[in-house]
Amino acid sequence: MKKMTRNVGCLLPFVVLIFHACTINGNTGGPVASTEKEMTYFSFLAEDNGGFLLQNLTGEIEGQNITVYVPVGGIYQSSLVAHFVSTGVAAYIDGVEQTSRTTAADFTNPVTYTIRAEDGTEQEYVVTIVCEGITITPEDQAEYLLQALVVPYSGITITDVSLYASTGQCGIVAGGKGLSNGVILTNGLAVNALPPNDSTCESSMLNEPGNSLCSLLTAPYGSNDSCWFEITFDLASGYNGICLEYVFGSEEYPESIDSINDACGIFLNGTTLEHNVALDPEGNHININGPFFHGDAVMLPPENGLEYDGSTPRWVAQGFIAAGSYGNKLIIVVCDASDCIGDSGIILSRLRGIPL
Ligand SMILES: [Ca+2]
Ligand SMILES: [Ca+2]
Ligand SMILES: [Ca+2]
Questions:
Q1: Could you tell me the residue range of the domain that residue 142 belongs to?
Q2: pTM, whole model, 2 decimals?
């Protein structure tokens, strides 16, 4: 119970005024302080969180529990600014007053908000961040994968598509809340990416060949069990580039760092490393031996919502090309390095044009 203290001397003129007004109206009862202390809205807005959130995430309020579902890959939770609305007069976390859309808090573990009413009574709400559950439906037809990947009427007209992969190596991803909808390409089985994480090395040895593009990224270890998804498209005149969201995850993390260099790449209009637009925030290519997987920002299960022992968060790959250009080519690859063991996969969402 919090101890409430007030300076009675400061309040006295108001008490006199209220008593006087009530006497004139013939009502001897004073105004009643409100007991309202309900949290009515909670979200994390992309614009309030430094650009690393790719979409607004709205909490679901059930009783005193608020759940914020996030897409596969997860989000960094240690410093998030919340947008909240309550019927109370103040909100606190561990006694620290919170200002909506301003105060950052650590949501790594469930966070308890205390909403205080005008009458001093309080109500607690617990906010928990959960990676939404996904389903993966194996899909071997390039056209169906494309449908799940491309945002309609977003400036891209597909003229050709092809897929080089084994049965079950790719799939359509659907999120329970729709946040993760898209496709997955793997060097094993697509369904192996599904949580829970109950293996340190979920594997499917397909014993299929690698490809030259993925071998650029795994060098000098070569590539195996590769998947190659190629999309040819025209770009409308009101757009000057394309972008898509992706998460790369792997069972090679952490035990195979500096040895088994599984990788992914997204090549735009060319087949050299300079054309790879799947880069970490420092501009590095993405593979198990690269700087990202050596660092402390790797997303881990269960927060990443995957079987994969380590993953990137959700990043945006983008490339700029001429407005109104024809015959552009996007090639997405993923592969094993050295052997065919230890699955990795790239989850892709929302391929679209970048408006001028
Ligand atoms: Ca695992
Ligand atoms: Ca494999
Ligand atoms: Ca592997």
A1: 134-355
A2: 0.88
